[in-house]
Each structure stands twice: as C-alpha cells, then as structure tokens.
Amino acid sequence: QVQLVESGGGLAQPGGSLRLSCVASGFSFSRSYMNWYRQGTGKEREWVAGSNWLSGATTYADSMKGRFTISRDNSKNTLYLQMNNLNPEDTAVYYCNSAHYWGRGTQVTVSS
Fold first, then answer.
1. 80 forms bridges with which residues in the sheet?
2. CA distance 45 to 54
3. What is the dihedral of CA 51, 55, 56, 60, to 10 degrees?
4. Are 67 and 81 contacting, i.e. CB atoms less than 8 angstroms apart?
5. Over the stretch 28-85, which tens digit does the pLDDT of each residue have?
6. DSSP bridge pairs for 59
7. Do the Cβ atoms of 26 and 1 come closer than 8 Å?
8. 12 has which bridge partners?
9. What would the mean pLDDT of 5-14 be, rounded to a whole number?
10. 48 pairs with which residues across the strands?
C-alpha cells in the first residue's frame, strides 16, 4: 500500500523558514520522480518543485526559485522541502506527490 505522509507544517512569520518532510512507503521511492504541490484556500493546486531520481535534477516553479529547496534522502525514503523567506502568499496546504499518489498534506500558514 502506497503511503505519503507529510509533516513539518505550521505557523511561520513573514521572512521565516519551515522544512517540510514527506515519508514514502509502498513503492520504489529511490526510483520515483517526486513533487511538492500546494493549494491555497479558494485556489487551484499548483506545482511547487520536482526531484528527478534519475538525473538528480531539481526544478521549481518560478515564484519559488531561490527561496525553496527540494531534496531527498533515499536511505530514509524521505522527501524534503526547505522553505525560506516565506511570505503570506505561501500560505497553503502542501502536498507530496509521486505519479498518481498523493499525501494528505500539511498546512503552512505565514502570518505576523
């Protein structure tokens, strides 16, 4: 059974940082392209960043470049998203994704 379990969300101040984690099980994490998505209230779900298992390349949505870093630890079947210089527009539920599998998400709220 495939499971993706996100954690690390919470309340951050503008300019602050959070690190999200996603623990994967039930599939070959080390050979899977992994993504982070997010969905704000009343907004469509949007892609945030991706991690290519084969090339090692990472890609980002334009608004996240330079602020967010996606990484993975294949020995722990864990995907990370380091988020720096957060702003209120980053408030959303953040989801871990691989193919058609999704986690339940973790809430990130950026507010003073």
1. 21, 71
2. 26
3. -40
4. no
5. 999 999 999 999 999 999 999 999 998 889 999 999 999 999 999 999 999 999 999 9
6. 50
7. yes
8. 110
9. 97
10. none
